[in-house]
Design brief:
Structural class of chain A: alpha/beta
Oligomer: heterodimer
Helix content of chain B: 25-40%
Helix content of chain A: 10-25%
Shape of chain A: globular
Strand content of chain A: 15-25%
Structural class of chain B: alpha/beta
Largest sheet of chain A: 8 strands, parallel
Strand order of the largest sheet of chain A: 5-4-3-2-1-14-9-8
Radius of gyration of chain A: 20 Å
Chain lengths: ~280, ~350
């Protein structure tokens, strides 16, 4: 089992000795595409300890593709590295122009159903709810309709299981896909030649280019994500949620050990809690 | 018009004539049936991305509607724009085959790459449109979809007018592009959003003079999306901020601005997109958007005849937005407001 550290702060590079690989970059925001200098620091630190490097890349506009080309050019000159793509345009760029870089299907493209809010609904664990309409004074008692078990089956699987999709990926040089650790059973079917990474403990739910709305700045990017994040619990969700930059994450309460073999996972990608200091939390995988 | 075409959502044969008179150039719709409903209720958006009430549910009614659209000269695209698991293919593939064989079906709209690959393998012959769920933010992605047999792409909502124009210039004649023009705004990127959605009015019965019973899939609400729940959390300030130094700040210290939620409008952007031969998608299956289509067709037509300077056009657009939405434009209700756009574009 490989363990990778998703470095979110370059000071965390001091801690990579306990891991096999370093992940760096952003899956969500083209404003966070690393500079060549940053990448050089990451690659130097990884090489000094004999660790592999994986660059995370986001969905991008045409302008963002230009920024990525600089990063890809540097990595390709350095030697072998993986690049996680979450945008099909980035995939074609890698395939066409950077054969030395190993493309990895990112978790934004696997289309897993993730939102923990669904858990009680799809497993028929909702309770009736009694409310009162303030305007009319009428009482409403709402009972849950039975949800067919096929819906739970759907939520446990994903499009990435489809053989035709994995054949296409393999035929185009993709030998690994990235998954989120769901808060319910997971059905993962991977070709024996397809590696499977599991991101822990934070699964993403959604993302936006309008981080100013999400971060309450009501403005364009000010790199607020480097300064703060939001965290909250709500009775609607069984696990904590985080707003980190332009994406919303949940913190899965399922230990990955229970699903490693069943889901063909051969790599854990561990992300430290946001702003928990430079020390990444020890993770029992 | 300036190469603009208007695509309108419809759910009944009786609406076809009304949309044609209003100025629609094409229509789109969804389809579910008893078989899909039994296993994957439409309420959960697992067959198409609209939830309950936004699709044809009777094959005969769909056939009649498509035939009527053909008689009135309006092509129709039928949407199968969810991402499907293997178990669903026993419904999806026969449904696509059946619908595609109907007189009046011009093509289908998809999101799922695996489905696209499967259709290519089957030799599917009708035009395929990649929905906004395909998250097309750049011309290379459009080219990728073209390589898989797609002939039209609906661009993502969160693109500026300049970015849309750039993609159109790069694509040229190789790909027909579509953009959302009105309604259906959201804080998040549609194709990457995995929030739980449930749209189910439920079954109601009266228990007494002051009490009603409701049975529905999602108990707390009949129309739920995680997006609105997040907005509610931010509005209530029911969160805590954690800073880079580890300090915690209560949400009450942050200001939440009311009425800055994207309603969904691209009217102002059309001034800079004239001549790009885009299709303008009016959003809202299940809602009768005749007046919206009529008004947008009129506005775009006047734009074509050179009736506006930029300033006057923006004024007219904002006035139209207010008339259609019942709210004043505050610069934040666009699909991707310039005030929030990164990189200043």
């Amino acid at each position: 089992m490989e363990k990778a550290l998703h470095v979110t702060d370059l000071r965390q590079l001091d801690r990579i000795a306990a891991y096999d690989r370093v992940y760096y970059g952003s899956e969500f925001c083209q404003e966070l595409v690393p500079s060549v200098d940053e990448l050089e620091r990451v690659c130097d630190a990884a090489a000094s300890k004999g660790k592999g490097v994986t660059l995370l890349t986001p969905y991008v506009t045409d302008e963002g593709l230009g920024r990525l080309e600089r990063a890809f050019g540097f990595l390709a000159r350095r030697g072998r590295a993986e690049v996680v793509f979450n945008d099909w345009g980035v995939f074609t760029l890698l395939r066409g122009s950077y054969p030395a870089l190993a493309p990895v299907l990112g978790r934004l493209l696997t289309k897993q159903q993730r939102d923990p809010l669904a858990r009680d609904v799809i497993f028929n664990r909702q309770r009736p709810l009694r409310t009162r309409d303030r305007r009319t004074g009428r009482t409403r008692i709402c009972f849950p309709r039975p949800v067919p078990p096929t819906v739970a089956g759907h939520f446990s699987a994903s499009m990435s299981n489809m053989p035709v999709f994995q054949e296409y990926l393999r035929a185009n040089g993709v030998r690994r896909l990235e998954l989120d650790n769901l808060v319910w059973d997971m059905t993962v079917r991977a070709h024996r030649q397809m590696g499977v990474s599991l991101h822990v403990p934070f699964g993403y739910i959604t993302t936006t280019r309008m981080c100013g709305l999400l971060n309450l700045t009501y403005a364009s990017c000010r790199r607020e994500c480097r300064e703060r994040c939001f965290t909250f619990r709500d009775e609607a969700w069984p696990v904590p949620l985080y707003i980190i930059g332009n994406a919303v994450f949940y913190e899965s309460d399922v230990t990955p050990a229970s699903r490693l073999r069943a889901c063909h996972v051969d790599r854990l990608v561990i992300r430290p809690k946001p702003f928990s200091g430079t020390r990444p939390e020890r993770y029992k995988g | 018009m300036n190469g603009f075409r208007i695509a309108a959502p419809f759910t009944a044969a009786a609406q076809v004539g009304e949309f044609r008179k209003a100025g629609a150039d094409e229509l789109y719709c969804g389809f579910v049936d008893a078989g899909s409903e039994k296993s994957w209720p439409a309420a959960f958006h697992l067959i198409n991305h609209r939830g309950g009430g936004g699709s044809f549910t009777d094959p005969a009614a769909l056939a009649e509607a498509l035939a009527e659209a053909r008689r009135q000269g309006l092509p129709v695209y039928v949407t199968f724009n969810s991402c499907y698991t293997e178990a669903q293919y026993r419904w999806v593939l026969p449904a696509i085959e059946r619908v595609s064989g109907l007189d009046g079906c011009a093509g289908i709209i998809v999101t799922d790459i695996a489905l696209l690959l499967t259709l290519r393998r089957m030799g599917y012959a009708k035009p395929i449109c990649m929905s906004t769920g395909g998250t097309t933010f750049n011309a290379r992605t459009a080219g990728f979809f073209r390589s898989l047999g797609v002939s039209r792409v609906v661009l993502d909502r969160q693109l500026s007018a300049a970015e849309i124009a750039g993609i159109a210039a790069r694509c040229g004649d190789t790909m027909h592009l579509e953009i959302f023009v009105y309604h259906g705004g959201c804080m998040f990127v549609d194709g990457y959003c995995m929030f739980f959605h449930c749209r189910d009015a439920g079954e109601r019965s009266v228990l007494g003079p002051d009490t009603e019973l409701v049975h529905r899939y999602y108990v707390p609400a009949e129309n739920h999306g995680g997006c609105t729940k997040i907005d509610e959390i931010l509005t209530r300030k029911a969160f805590c901020a954690v800073t880079s130094s580890g300090k915690r700040i209560p949400g009450s210290r942050f200001a939440h601005a009311k009425n800055k939620y994207p309603y969904g409008c691209n009217l102002c952007a059309l001034y800079d997109l004239a001549g790009r031969h885009l299709t303008l998608k009016v959003v809202g299956r299940g809602e009768k958007r005749f007046e919206t289509v009529r008004a947008i067709a009129r506005l775009a037509g006047r734009l074509e005849r050179g009736a506006y300077t930029r300033g006057r056009y923006v004024q007219a657009s904002k006035k139209l937005f207010s008339a259609l939405s019942g709210r004043k434009c505050n610069g934040y209700q666009c699909y991707y407001p310039p005030r929030l756009a990164n990189g200043g574009t």
